[in-house]
Design goal:
The protein is of the alpha/beta class and 187 residues long. Strands 1, 2, 3, 4, 5 and 6 form a six-stranded mixed sheet that branches. α1 links the parallel β1 and β2. The chain binds inosine 5'-triphosphate and magnesium ion. Belongs to the YjjX NTPase family. Homodimer. It is an enzyme of class 3 (hydrolase). Keywords: Hydrolase, Magnesium, Manganese, Metal-binding, Nucleotide metabolism, Nucleotide-binding.
């Protein structure tokens, strides 16, 4: 069983390796088919699902994982949000979201002017490639939580759900409805 991650971003690939230390994990560049800067939970989640679907190989034992970063409002406050999706080679889809933190007004304004958070963060922190290192979450938590750590938590939520429902299927093969498995996505 191999795991294909829909990104070349090292924070995402390393997060998956951390949670699946015994699996072969590779990163592949795939389009998210949502905006470069997703602006809601719904769009960010969709990006993660799209990436995962493009990675999975239904003929081979390769599962796909998509991780997507975005932003979303609660009232007038902008938050950083992150979503992950795991698609099995039999087409089951598991999703989970990550921690959210507030983003300052200055960043909100620049994003609304059409800039991408990755570029805004480099200027704000006067650093290079923040998105591939500590991430916005690292900068705004004083380096207590890195982008990789945050994604690793999301991947744990995916792995845990996948394992739980696989186990349920083994234990109760004819009672999918009764076990109340999560509804699968129809693309
Ligand atoms: O190569 P990919 O996988 O696309 O990785 P990415 O860094 O572009 O990450 P996403 O597409 O998932 O994130 C969407 C946008 O938000 C930015 N972004 C999201 N979370 C971030 C973070 O924690 N730090 C810096 N930029 C972030 C990111 O750079 C993009 O501009
Ligand atoms: Mg991107």
């Amino acid at each position: 069983m191999t795991i294909s991650v829909g990104s070349k971003n090292p924070t995402k690939i390393e997060a998956v390796k951390e949670v699946f230390p015994k699996k072969r994990v590779t990163g592949v560049e795939v389009p998210s088919n949502v905006s470069d800067q997703p602006f809601s939970d719904k769009e960010t989640r969709k990006g993660a699902i799209n990436r995962a679907f493009q990675c999975v190989n239904f003929n081979l034992s390769t599962i796909g994982i998509g991780l997507e970063g975005g932003v979303m409002y609660v009232d007038n406050q902008l938050y950083l949000c992150n979503w992950g999706a795991l698609v099995t080679n039999t087409g089951e889809v598991y999703t989970a979201s990550g921690a959210r933190i507030m983003l300052p007004k200055a960043i909100d304004e620049q994003l609304r002017n059409g800039m991408e958070l990755g570029d805004v963060m480099d200027r704000y922190a006067m650093k290079e490639e923040v998105r591939k290192k500590e991430g916005a979450i690292g900068i705004f938590t004083n380096d207590l939580i890195s982008r990789q750590e945050m994604f690793a938590h999301v991947v744990k939520l995916l792995r845990g759900q996948w394992e739980f429902w696989e186990e349920q299927k083994r234990k109760r093969p004819f009672s999918n409805v009764q076990t109340g498995a999560p509804r699968n996505e129809i693309r």
